[in-house]
Sequence to fold (303 residues):
Amino acid sequence: MSRSAEIMLDPFSDVVSLLGTRSVRGTSLEASGRWALSFDGRARLKFVAMTRGRCWLVLPGGRTEPMEEGDVFLLSDTRYTVSSHPDVEPTDGMDLYAAPGHDAVRLGEGRDTAMVGGGSAFANGCAPFVLDALPPFLRIDRTSPAAAAIARTLLSLQAEIRNADVGSSLVAERLAEILVVEAVRAFVAAGSKDTIGWISALSDPRLAKAIGLMHGEVARRWTAPMLAREVGMSRSAFTQRFTRRVGRPPMDYLTLWRMVLARRKLSSGSSVAAVAEEVGYGSQSAFTQAYKRTMGRTPRSAD
Fold:
């Protein structure tokens, strides 16, 4: 691939493909009457689509969100409760889905409310790079194209998991990637300048190009002035804008991405020396110091 093609790679697609996104078990819930189920936070992205009726989502701190048919919401590593009303005392929803094969739960005799859920997890140790750049809760408006696309994909994911046909595992993995991308598209499209993180910064064309350059040529000896020139900004304006939107200076971001990528490669069996060269370090000792400083462990302890 040419350099010009490489730097045009979509940064988020790059991350999703490199960090080993995989499907998390699909589930469904039908409920009527008074009910409430609580769930623990997990280091993954959780998707829920309301397919019938309405309910309430209760988040930490007492924040409540009404949910109606057609709504889709995305949760990262946060506790939450779904209920017929916020004042209902919840039971542990994790227990209801704990046993293998218990993917569908029904509460009460009627079918007033129905929802389907699914999720995407990442390779061990890689999730924070994505989850820290997303809000713990994201509602995707029921009138948006993204909501309909996610709801359809969730139903397809549920069918693949339930039927276990030939190739289902591979299809489920691809559907998990689609779910991540659709939700993030909606998040980026919202374009809130108050949200900090590399994913929200992709709504800024110049910052998106800079991030794409770093991902496309991760081993290149980038500097802030070089990146600023590439995106047509002064060094100071670029650094200030990047830091404000991403939450860290450009070179800090590059180091973090290099170390996340290195951890993935190390966990796949690559040698420390080979990984050091692949992510742009001229010496193994310099790479080891950077890795330990960023990841809090030595490269040899990567899982």
Q: What stands out?
A: The two ends are 30 Å apart (CA to CA).
